[in-house]
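Problem 3 from the worked examples.
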Amino acid sequence: MADKSFKEEKFMKNSRKIKKSSNGYLYGFLFIFLLGYAFFFSSNYWLPQGYKGVIVTPIGGTIEQNSRFITVDRWAYCPGKKTMEIIVEMENNSLDDINSYKWQGRDKNGLIKTEVICSNDKFTVLHMTGVKKDWKEVSLTISADDKDFKPVVIYMNDKTATMVKELPAGAINDYIELAYTSKIESYEASIEDLNGKIKENDQLMENARSRMAELDERKKHQTESEKEETDSLIGGLEGQINDKKLENEKNEEDIEELKKKIELQKDLLKELKKEE
């Protein structure tokens, strides 16, 4: 009887230990789960807000919407003035008689004061003021009072915008000149980037050819089964070389197109100076 009581007491102690241990695991799991939950839902408050995958319009890039071609000619930021200067070029091919627009900047903190500095029938110069130095992304929304006009949203980040020390005031033609030169600089930077990619691809192809030669040499001392595996590796490398060749051909075509765009902007600059 005493032995039975001892066994029951031991069983109860073990049960309490298991229960206590289970509760410990449960509490630990709940703690980690709630911590992860708080981490995920509070991340917007403490993680960097920029670079969330929005499509940034490059300088000289064009958006087609509402039967209009809208080009970002310049997007500059002056840290000293906490001001952005944006030059937008709009080619209106519509028949909607809408010629007046609303321009509104926005960042992670909300709306940014946005005003038109000067404009003509094609170019609009905007200033966004009060933009903090730690900005990462901003957007510009173009809208109109007409409900049929679909708002256009243009995104920009600090990696694409031009950083400047000052923003001198000027007449509309001064800003148009800035627009043309800004696009030329952007196109030239794109050409440099594409040439870098071509050079990188050339090196990758050279490495692949060297590797193919090594593999081919090894086949002299391989069985038929091993040779088949080696041939498969060589075929894979040949495929990579062909892919890089196609990439380079596309890059070279893009470079030629950019060169043509540069010449067009230079011609426009010459015409503008003649008007002066």
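Problem 4, a separate protein:
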Amino acid sequence: MRNAREYKLLYVVAIIMVVTISTMGSTYAYFAARTSSDDSTLNTGSTTYSISMDINPIYSGFSFIPMNDVDALKGIKNECHDKYNRGVCSAYSIRVYGYSSNLDFVSGYMNVDTNNIENLSYMMFENSDTYDEDNCFEYNGEYYCKVVPATHVVEEENLSLGDSYDVRNKSETKIILLIWLSNLNRSQNENDIGNFNASITMQAGNGGEIKGSIASAVVVDDGNEGGSDNGGE
């Protein structure tokens, strides 16, 4: 089995950011986050719009166990670790930029295909100038506040990444995607050891769009079974 350093070198060459997630029992799942292109030009009617998107993992590189949905905000406030320093989630930053000054709004959705993962959940946060202890966290000196609550991933549905984001007078829009396994307080080895592929789509206000992806593969490693009963405190 390749060690973490070998994987890092491999994906640096491929220009793919690698993050790690462990379901339960004895598995690690390696997730690669990338945009489908560095820059996409959107053509809508007689007007051409340009828009770019980056997807990068921000809390990753460790195994994680199932987490209670109510503890998701605690989890990300504690950099995706619980009070026992066990990994409980993975988080990705999504930055939309390089759009035309004519653009007023962008919105987004996610499509997920799963293979033997039944209890995947997600939450979305938007960059904000204000802070609310019950809905926000701080990352890199900036506030991010909840725009999509804890939501169970349903395969083949368009899963909202939040309502339309106002991009007027903004050079970029930053949101964060949090992903975890919902804790069922029982063994989840049978139903939550697998992989998934997620497609991230950001749309311009007039219908143009740019796509990115999060893909997964699973390799075997040692781990301890159990769920987190507290995302932080």
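Solution to problem 4. The longest helix spans residues 4-13. The two ends are 35 Å apart (CA to CA).
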